[in-house]
Amino acid sequence: MLKRFKKSTAAMPDAAVVLGKKYEIEWLNKAARRLLGLQSPQDIGKPITNFIRSPAFSEYLTNDDKKSGINFHLLEQIRSDFIANVSHELRTPLTVVNCFIETMRDEDCPKEWERPLLLMAQQTARMCNIIEYLLLLSRL
Predict the structure, then answer these.
(1) Helices assigned H by DSSP within the chain
(2) Going by CATH, does the domain composed of 2-62 fall within 3.30.450.20?
(3) Residue ranges per domain, the chain?
(4) Is the dihedral of CA 98, 103, 109, 114 positive or negative?
(5) Residue 50 per-residue DSSP state
(6) Nearest 10 degrees: CA dihedral of 130, 132, 136, 138?
(7) 75 falls in which pLDDT band (50, 70, 90)?
(8) pLDDT tens by residue, 13-49
(9) Where does residue 43 rank: exposed (0-12), middle (13-18), buried (19+ CB within 10 A)?
């Protein structure tokens, strides 16, 4: 039964972590590694509260009533901040590249450069739009 559980949760896109009696990590799936930053085998045997530092989560673990569930507003904020930071880090080099492309297009460039520069300008604009969409999604 344990093998079937591990096999079925290993394929899940959601994080799955099996905890022991003292809330130590006994097993985790790939999604838990990716989403929660856990590592196997290094984190096996360590308390989950070492990795998810939230008073609400700690209270949830020690509370006998598990029906109420828990919402991780903290994780939503981390996700939103991450998207904003990545977007900013991508926008800076794209701005520099775009400025060079515009400068080269404004100059009397050789005829054979016109099409590649146009394509570069279009793709740079496309990437800037993607970044704007990411920022919009992080605010929603």
Answers:
(1) 2-10, 30-36, 55-62, 73-106, 111-139
(2) yes
(3) 2-62, 73-139
(4) positive
(5) G
(6) 70
(7) low
(8) 888 888 999 999 999 988 888 888 888 889 999 999 8
(9) buried
